[in-house]
Amino acid sequence: MWGGRFASPPAEIMAEINASIGFDKRLHAQDIRGSMAHAAMLAAKGIISAEDAAAIRFGLAAIEAEIDAGTFQFSRELEDIHLNIEARLTERIGPAGGRLHTARSRNDQVATDFRLWVRDTLDTLDLQFKDFQQALAEKALAHAATVMPGFTHLQTAQPVTFGHHLLAYVEMTARDRGRLQDARRRLNECPLGSAALAGTSFGIDRDMTAAELGFDRPTANSLDAVSDRDFLMEALSMAAIAAVHLSRLAEEIVIWTSAPFGFVRLSDAFTTGSSIMPQKRNPDAAELVRAKTGRITGALIGILTVMKGLPLAYAKDMQEDKEGGFDALATLSLALAAMAGMIRDLEPNAGAMKAAAGGGYSTATDLADWLVRRLNLPFREAHHVTGRIVAAAAATGLALDELGLDEMQAIEPRITAEVFEVLSVENSVKSRTSYGGTAPANVEAQAKRWLEKLAAE
Ligand code: ARG
């Protein structure tokens, strides 16, 4: 493509480090779309003839069919997807193919292609996020009143419901989707026509190509347009945060399915066995979702590090944006699908959850609150009294509601038998009716609200 200036071919190792066709062939559909739009615009502006534009578009359609059919010969000598397609176009339609690159450079071409790819991928991911939210909300509705222990420091804290716990992830996912939509909105400007870095002397119509490719507008600064990869940084930031959310849930599934907890069971469909220990049921999918987070956050750090020292405008360093970007977003897609599958599959063991919820003096706060409400104790004093009651129960190995009234009265004489009502885990969760609290009625309403909202999207 630059034979005019060069007398001899590149060294073997130069070709190897330089070529990106091995991975950027994935941009073929976006590259052809961009070229179709560019050719139509060049003809509309009288920069190339209508016949040449028609030949180019015809040739590009044929190339797309070749690629789809798997008959296209990708060549490393032609470096990347852009040169591969352009060379084949000229092979197929003759000199008209050489007119396609008028008023264009690979710099604005690759920026356009990759934006289109990231945009398409974000749109697919958003649907997957939605499906994941639906899986969570459906399970939450079914378990709006299923009591489990809530933890802080992974120490039993207060009873909550399983539905409430799952809806926490629906909220996180909603924010992930907000970040996705934000990133999409900002990336939706078209770099095409920025040319190599300075714009072009041809009378092009950038609004036309931008509109044709579904962008909101053309980018306003040619140097920025060919140098910017923050559209990818934003997509990967969103992906990294979402992956961290998935990883936390994955970690919880690993804990919940462990024998000492036994809160949740995954069916055979989402479990693996051990080749030596016949009893094992391992939650490998959850572990892999947890682990794949490393690749996604790694890709974010990768692109940030690639870009941090680059002077304007394009530098070949920027070719390193793709593998990490492709991999991270594909990995997020896989993790989301696996997680939605696990959520639909898993069944909580309500008995084990409830038993654990009652352990660890989880209703101590309810007792303290009762002392405040009924005896008008200041909360700090109620906390102290409750602490002494918990200590008394612990000394005899009893749960709070197993301790006799007389033993409680020995610590605070004004306590009445009525106190036992607040010591059960069911009544504890039922009482948490503050907005956003874990009361089953709240959880049911929130799960329904989410399901309606998601269905109406
Ligand atoms: N394969 C290149 C990339 O992905 C395309 C742009 C090449 N531009 C250039 N001036 N060498 O970044």
Tell me what the structure shows.
Pathway: Amino-acid biosynthesis; L-arginine biosynthesis; L-arginine from L-ornithine and carbamoyl phosphate: step 3/3. Belongs to the lyase 1 family. Argininosuccinate lyase subfamily. By secondary structure, the chain is mostly helical. The chain is built from 18 helices and six strands. The chain has a two-stranded antiparallel sheet with strand order 1-2. It has a two-stranded parallel ribbon with strand order 3-4. Strands 5-6 form a two-stranded antiparallel ribbon. The longest helix is centred in the first third of the chain and has 37 residues, at about 105-140. The two termini are about 50 Å apart. Bound molecules: arginine (ARG). The site of arginine has 10 residues, from helix 6. Arginine binds near residues 20, 24, 107 and 316.
Structural category: mainly alpha
Number of helices: 18
**Which strand-content bin applies to the residues?**
under 5%
- The end-to-end distance, rounded to whole angstroms, is 48 Å
Spatial strand arrangement across the major sheet: 1-2
Q: Which small-molecule ligands are present, each listed once?
A: arginine
Helix and strand run: HHHHHHEEHEHEHHEHHEHHHHHH
| C-alpha-based Rg, rounded | 30 Å
The averaged pLDDT comes out at 96
Kindly state the number of beta strands: 6
Enzyme class: lyase
Catalytic activity: 2-(N(omega)-L-arginino)succinate = fumarate + L-arginine
Keywords: Amino-acid biosynthesis, Arginine biosynthesis, Cytoplasm, Lyase
EC number: 4.3.2.1
